[in-house]
Amino acid sequence: MMESGIPICNICGEQVGLASTNGEVFVACHECNYPVCKTCLDYEIKEGRNACLRCATPYDENEQESTNHATMASHPNTAQDVGVHARTVSTVSTVDSEYQDDSGNPIWKNRVESWKEKKSKKKKNQSKTVVQEAAEVPPEQQMEEKPQLADAAEPLSRIIPVPKSQITPYRIVIIVRLIVLCLFFHYRVTHPVESAYPLWLISVICEIWFAFSWVLDQFPKWSPINRETYLDRLSARYEREGEPCQLAPVDFFVSTVDPMKEPPLITANTVLSILAVDYPVEKVSCYVSDDGGSMLTFESLAETSDFARKWVPFCKKFSIEPRAPEFYFTQKFDYLKDKVQPSFVKERRAMKREYEEYKVRVNALVAKAQKTPEDGWTMADGTPWPGNNPRDHPGMIQVFLGHSGAHDIEGNELPRLVYVSREKRPGYQHHKKAGAENALIRVSAVLTNAPYILNLDCDHYVNNSKAIREAMCFLMDPQVGRDVCYVQFPQRFDGIDKSDRYANRNIVFFDVNMKGLDGIQGPVYVGTGTVFNRQALYGYSPSNLPTIHKSSSSCSCCCRRKKPAKEKDLAEVYREAKREDLNSAIFNLREIENYDEHERSLLISQMSFEKTFGMSSVFIESTLMENGGVPDSANPSTLIREAIHVIGCGYEEKTAWGKEIGWIYGSVTEDILTGFKMQCRGWRSIYCMPLRPAFKGSAPINLSDRLHQVLRWALGSVEIFLSRHCPLWYGFGGGRLKWLQRLAYTNTIVYPFTSLPLIAYCVLPAVCLLTGKFIIPTLSNVASVLFLGLFLSIIVTSVLELRWSGIGIEDWWRNEQFWVIGGVSAHLFAVFQGFLKMLAGIDTNFTVTAKAADDGEFGDLYIFKWTTVLIPPTTILIVNLVGVVAGFSDALNKGYEAWGPLFGKVFFSFWVILHLYPFLKGLMGRQNRTPTIVVLWSVLLASVFSLVWVKINPFVSKDDPSAVVQNCIDMDC
């Protein structure tokens, strides 16, 4: 506690120092001799705290310098006792009223603020010392050091804004389109169609909703940006020759559930691409979550770890891309390009043979697993496999690589590879993928505790070996990374047909919407290909975020009246106070090294860490290490036992897991919800698009699987809409989510409801053709200009969007088509299922079953699976085709005058048919074979709809005899 008889300041931890008048030890309080340095005392007085922190005696500023003879130097024993006492006091809970000042702020926080000011002054003094020392260095040596200092000061990335020549016209057209929309709706509302009033009213309601959806989708794209990274600067700053590598460690998460649906070979390729990534091996750890507890996954990982000893050195020796063997050996390109080593061809052939043999072994395991033995699976030593019952088994952890002796064939160290299967017991809610990811957070924190986490789906491999370095250019940049919760990479896919019939690539979303969000507060989290800041997952707020609820002494706007405290979101205020307490605890425990184990455990308990993170002292200690890492004295066997403990099925009970920290529960789209919670706390995200795609995966390319995927996404959005985390009302008390960002999140949760007006609008053209009515009155010159202006603004907006984003018109058109296809099918069922699940507790699953398949390239494109989701779009197609035929027949009978009105009606019907054309092709398949059940249901619905319409024709008055006579004449009765 003391050096040279000078006590330690109990606020900042530095030596108290000497008084400026007599050179004796400085003393602040003469009653209890509580050791406080002059800097901290001045700060306390400046902040209005004029009483001693220990005895509450007022400081006498006039006598401080004159009475320095009564110093603590004359009482060394007392000073030592005071130091011990101060250490004990610092363990008192911050909510204790005895240690709070008049303003209600805990003394603990005051100490933290004082410490920060003292540290900043100390850093300034150190920088001055460095400058003075640099002046004494010979000029020759200074010239050598200047480039290194310059590299250290340069940013690791930069923002490339969209050129003004592209973005300015784009914004002008958006405003013009908004004005035209307002004029258009004024005309539509003031000019009803009396002869078809119900149809007109439905069409106006639908058009208003479409305009609202357009606003939600359009304005978050107001400020799109691009980014560029500098990998050479990253290496120059953190990988200097002769010095230890300073790059931050990264924990990779790979999740899999059912090896029959997610082939082990695909998961193995993802793992191999991670183990061979271009990053220091001691900084990489790969955790594979097997949520099904399958022995097949376990054994395939054992085979993968053996093959990795050969594959990893081969990849790094010849710098091959991609580093997933299945995709490297099957890609069609000149593999000799840029290869200059003569041994490459020979070693590549040998490696390809090794991989083929490895595939045979893995496929043999798959074949063996097709039939489960009656007594269950047994391991090599004869003991039963613990995961024989996937719903009832203990937690399992196996470290395949990373322990002693795990080296490749050249004797080099390999990254860690850890198999994890969390405990499953009946009666517990396991929360599917979100629960598995949270279990991986805790396991990795106990075993490796890297400050950054990258999560990948089992079918997404590392396509760019430098992807992690790309992310580190943002996360490790002192200026950029302070408030970045995650870096999101775009998703890219293999095995999709060239025309991308069902918009599987999602180019418009990843290359347009996500760029727009990057210019606001950052892209949304899309579930895979994301590098997280671990502290953000723990629920903390950014370190550089100011306290927003603290009252300010001056008001920026005199006429703006402050809201009373009662109007604020009290839950948000409580959460912010809680996070500030946690941040203070992290800071103090990290900097003060004089606590023993008992005192540390007391402080942790008093800060309620157990209620937040669970009953694991080892895990809680890991959360207090902002830069990651595990203690050097940690016993591996103890860590494994603790890791088993934190993946227990009851560990999360009565904690904040899934509520405030980790992956958030409550929706099948836990990714959107997790990113939303982080950005509500004040974090921002980064969108990184390297020239070579960072990760690639596989997507369901046939119609049925694609619709089922879209159904799951839409269902998750409906669940969020009906939950407390809905962006329409959640997080307003914090004020940390920007308005355009909130619009974007609102769009992600309300888009499934567009299915209702979309279906109505797709049926309206057929109804108009069948009845001879129309939803638009005879157009005047002004109305014609409005309609023309609306169509032109829509077209120009799309063209300018294609210009600044760089996507092709075919990708844009496919996106438009599938927006209609998904809207009238999967989104409708998602709304129906979501309300049943959230309001009535009924979980209705619309499953799909395989019906037919074709061989050859893109054979999966023609696989057809029956599902009820296909019925609504098929019905709409048949109704519109019937309506077109009926319309033309009616025009032929009525003569020349009927062709003009027919054009407008047929135009809208063709609009529907063109958008549903990919659906029609998928329905027919390669041989134009449609399942009979689909045709029968669709024809039945179309027939019933037509007969009912004829029966209750609302446009014929029952009391109008002329209408009845006309009907008789038409029927030739």
Automatic annotation (TrEMBL):
This is Cellulose synthase. The chain crosses the membrane at residues 168-187, 199-216, 750-770, 782-800, 820-840, 861-886, 898-920, 932-952. It catalyses: [(1->4)-beta-D-glucosyl](n) + UDP-alpha-D-glucose = [(1->4)-beta-D-glucosyl](n+1) + UDP + H(+). The lineage of its organism: Eukaryota, Viridiplantae, Streptophyta, Embryophyta, Tracheophyta. Its EC number is 2.4.1.12. Binds 2 Zn(2+) ions per subunit. It is an enzyme of class 2 (transferase). Residues 7-62 form the Cellulose synthase RING-type zinc finger domain. PANTHER family: X-BOX TRANSCRIPTION FACTOR-RELATED. It is found in: Cell membrane. Its cofactor is Zn(2+); Mn(2+). Residues 118-150 are annotated as: Disordered. InterPro entries: Cellulose_synth, CES_Znf_RING, Nucleotide-diphossugar_trans, Znf_RING/FYVE/PHD. Keywords: Cell membrane, Cell wall biogenesis/degradation, Cellulose biosynthesis, Glycosyltransferase, Manganese, Membrane, Metal-binding, Transferase, Transmembrane, Transmembrane helix, Zinc, Zinc-finger. It is a multi-pass membrane protein. The gene is CESA8. Pathway: Glycan metabolism; plant cellulose biosynthesis. Belongs to the glycosyltransferase 2 family. Plant cellulose synthase subfamily.
